Amino acid sequence: MSKPIKIKRGLNIPLKGSAEKVLVRLDKAETYGVKPTDFPGLVPKLNVAVGDKVRAGSPLFHDKYRPNIVFSSPVSGEVVDVRRGERRVILEVVVKADRGEVAYEDFGPASPETLTRDEVIARLLKAGAWPYIRQRPFGIIANPADSPKSIFISGFDTSPLAPDLDFAVQGEEESFQAGVDAIRKLTTGKVHLGLNSDFPPAKAFANAKGVEFHYFTGPHPTGNVGVQIHHIDPINKGEVVWVVNPLDVIIIGRLFLKGIYDATKVIALAGSEVVKPRYYKLISGASIESIIKDNISTQAQVRIISGNVLTGTRVDKLGYLSFYDNMVTVIPEGNKYEFFGWIAPGVNKHSASRTFLSKLIPGKRFTLDTNMHGGHRAMVVTGQYEKVMPMDIYPMHLVKAILANDIDRMEQLGIYEVVEEDMALCEYVCPSKTEVQAILRKGIETMIKELS
Amino acid sequence: MKALRNYLDKIKPHFQKGGRFEMFHSTFDAFETFLFVPNTVTTKGSHIRDSLDLKRTMSIVIIALMPAMLFGMWNVGYQHALSIGASWSFFETFWYGFLKVLPLIVVSYGVGLSIEFAFAQSRGHEVNEGFLVSGLLIPLIMPVDVPLWMLAIAVAFAVIIGKEVFGGTGYNVFNPALLARAFLFFAYPSHMSGDKVWIAGLTHGQGVVDGFSGATPLAKAAAYQIDQLPSVYDMFMGFIPGSVGETSTLAILIGAVILIVTGIGSWKIMVSVFGGGFAAGLLFNAFAVNPYMEIPAWQHLIMGGFAFGAVFMATDPVSASQTEKGKWIYGFLVGFLALLVRVLNPAYPEGMMLAILLMNAFAPLIDYYVVEANIRRRMKRAKKVANV
Questions:
Q1: Domain end (from A204, A237, A258)
Q2: Which of A234, A448, B53, B323 lies in the 20 to 30 Å Cα band around B60?
Q3: Separation CA A421–CA B315 (nearest Å)
Q4: Residues of A in contact with B323 (CB under 8 A)
Q5: Do the Cβ atoms of A428 and B50 come within 8 Å?
Q6: Domain match, A99 and A246 both
């Protein structure tokens, strides 16, 4: 093992309710949803209408500006609903699953070794597996016409209550390798696999061929692929790097091994309000209801989040697992007043600062709710963001540049290297309650507009 | 608690849009959020938030100021007793000082908060907590006998010209508390310097014992009366004349520990201010051409407002350097300049105030170069790749 890269800055938020390593194999959910809103910047165009029959791998909608990028149905069944929001924006395309076995669209198995780069891309595009490949800068779906300087896979997740990816990829060694083989075709550079040096990696990772291993140790956001890129092969202006989640590498692998779009993955259900936090094997896009049924302490009002508590999206009980997410978190809502809460000693309150008594209790795990803990203020305190940002970037100055809409400055201060998840901790610790992630996405959108 | 909450919920609609008292909504909001942390929940981005907010941040600074404030009250009484040759009990001493200092604090908060509330209201903002700290800092850096009307004008000047014209808390260039003092220093110099103002009652000459001067250690040093300086013990403990809260280095250091342990105050700035002052002191020792320059370097750090400035003024996150590297440079220069002004310029016995205000003006420049270095690193990296 090469010498691990030690990351010092960051913050682990110790939450209650991490998933026990028990795998529950779920019956098929009643409905599945694909949400165009999971893909920043996407303008979707429908390929189907309500009532159409689809198979797993049939396109549901595509990108208006890059029609070859399609988004497929994860199961076979009937399109029952296209939910729209304000200004008729498509929020969800809902497929009611058939009973019995999933009927797959057949793309025919093929060994990536024997295919050319264009053939690999064409196959990914056709089956709707292309969106699993995202690009940096900007964290949007990769452009098939680009040639990335390298591709990164982060083999571990450090976010609060995150699933253990080593556990989630067990038994998928073959598919993972097939996926890596396919991805390797996409770049002339290297495929980098980031691993946690504190634990022995799963077989699928350790035995992977054709990747360059990198070992990391440190608090969140060490597991973020953006942080790993920054330390191994940072992105400069004009460069493009692609990233793929390991569970999605497996889905890509199946497309080549078996010739089908099988979006089955292992996700974690976690959070303080879950009765039995566990791992679930299910098909991506499954309704949240199928997972949390009878598994939530019903007394309190809860928030269900697809993804982790720092970057996930809020979904309701009848919502669907988001495209890139590997976990569902359930935490209590914090919509209550707290008498003199700002001065309370705070044994049960978590803070990155040392202003609460809870700091004196080592190893304590917290039940955190969605309360803001204060009102919006001007940015007053400095140095907080820097403590949780393990990159050579000045986060506060970047945020200010975005607020000032100063494009040159954003570029100079490193906006190409970050996406929301990399600055989520800045938002968490901010005592002025600034919405850092929303501001960053606004800046990224400005940059995309500016560069196109 | 519950009844109070219910009452607030009942009257709240009057203060909201379209209500009878809409014009006071910021005021209502300030009191409501003072009593209760609001029920606002996150909507996007991070679903959970750190429990720390600005109210708590500012409260920690207030707590850190308590030792200096309480000691200051006692010392006001103690110095007065010395001047009239009385021997008072501890309680009498403290009570005298308490009655002298309390009006300063009340006027400072009264004037400052009214202006803050008015501005928050006119802008439709929530009331910012910044003045909670400034409002206490201002009385602590005043001579105890400053007339209240003068204090009121100074506070108004600091809040309006020093802060609100720039956009309010978080946008000010200069430390508001120091501006208040600087304003008085230049507008009413006779009330802000000399030997009489530092001890309660001395300006009226009420039965002062013979030979009692009331000069601060800095004044004595500037007059080359080095042999008349108080003992190091007295200067460290703070049994000397001076502004209300700045005499006791010990009390200030207790505050510094609170700020550093909680992580609210920047230890980098504090350490580098002391470092800068010490370095300047050593330099003076090396080239000593007059008695003032011969004072041991470390002794400067416990004289006058040096420690108070280092711990509570230079660390103001808004007007100080905002980058971590910049904080080292900023602090060092504050300390260094403070001694330069103090020793080399006969017009200003106290250099700390001017040094911090000057460096406030330069802090953005320091940050600019620190950030610029980061940008250059990024450019260099890009070029290296381009050349390969």
A1: A258
A2: B323
A3: 31
A4: 394, 397
A5: yes
A6: yes
Indicate whether A337 pLDDT > 90: no
| Residues of chain A found within 8 Å of residue B33, distances taken between Cβ atoms | 374-375
B 339-368 → A contacts, CB under 8 A: 367
Q: A105 phi and psi, to 5 degrees? A: -70, 135
**Structure tokens, B32:** 């409501």
**Edge-to-edge order in the sheet of strand A264-270:** A20-25, A278-283, A264-270, A327-332, A302-306, A313-315
A271 within domain boundaries: no
Measured distance CA(B299)–CA(A312) in Å, rounded: 56
Q: Cβ neighbours of residue B356 under 8 Å, at least 6 residues apart?
A: B175, B178, B309, B313, B314, B334, B338
Strand arrangement of the beta sheet that strand A191-196 belongs to = A5-6, A212-217, A191-196, A150-154, A241-243, A134-136, A140-141
Q: In this structure, what are the phi and psi dihedrals at residue A377, rounded to the nearest 5 degrees?
A: -140, 170
Instruction: Output Rg (C-alpha) for chain B, integer angstroms.
Output: 23
Q: Which residues of B touch A352 (CB under 8 A)?
A: 50, 52
The CA distance from A391 to A409, in Å, is 17
A60 backbone dihedrals φ, ψ, rounded to 5°? -100, -45
Query: Is residue A334 a part of any domain in this protein?
Result: no
Residue B227 to residue B26: CA distance in whole angstroms: 56
CB-CB under 8 Å, A375 with B374: no
The residue type of A434 is T
Inter-chain contact B48–A351, Cβ cutoff 8 Å? no
Helices (H), B263-351: 267-286, 297-300, 306-308, 324-344
pLDDT one-digit tens code per residue, B254-306:
999 999 999 999 999 999 999 999 999 999 999 888 888 888 999 999 988 89
User: Which alpha helices (H) appear in A196-245, and where do they start and end?
Assistant: 203-206, 225-232
Residue A424 identity: A
Counting the structural domains of chain A, the total is 2
Find chain B residues with C-beta within 8 A of A220's C-beta. Answer: none
d(Cα B130, Cα B309) in Å, to the nearest integer? Answer: 18
Answer for the pair A446, A407: CB distance below 8 angstroms, yes or no: yes
Determine the 3-state secondary structure of A397 from DSSP: helix
Residue B77's closest CA among B95, B59, B63, B54?
B95
Q: Over the stretch B25-62, which tens digit does the pLDDT of each residue have?
A: 778 888 888 888 888 888 888 999 999 999 899 999 99
Residue in A350, A396, A435 nearest the CB of B322: A396
Whether A274 is covered by a domain: the verdict is: no
Rounded CA separation B22/B18 (Å): 6
Q: What is the pLDDT of residue A296?
A: 87
Whether A232 and A94 share a structural domain? yes
* Final residue belonging to a domain, choices A243, A258, A273: A258
Which residues make Cβ contacts (< 8 Å) with residue A219, sequence separation at least 6?
Answer: A7, A9, A10, A11, A12, A158
Output the pTM of the full model.
0.91
Domain that holds residue A415: 384-451
At B64, list the tokens. Answer: 């850190």
Q: Which of B7, B46, B383 to mutate to test the interface with A (most CBs of A within 10 A)?
A: B46
A388 and A254 part of one domain? no
Please, are residues B109 and B156 in contact by the beta-carbon 8 Å criterion? no
Do β-strands A31-34 and A90-97 pair in parallel, antiparallel, or remain unpaired? antiparallel
Q: Omega of the bond prior to A67 within 30 degrees of 0, cis? A: no
- Give the Cα separation of B179 and A189 in Å (integer): 58
Q: What ipTM did this prediction achieve?
A: 0.89
Residue with tokens 């993972």: A176
Q: Express each pLDDT in A128-184 by its tens digit.
A: 999 999 999 999 999 999 999 999 999 999 999 999 999 999 999 999 999 999 999
- Residue A405 maps to a domain: yes
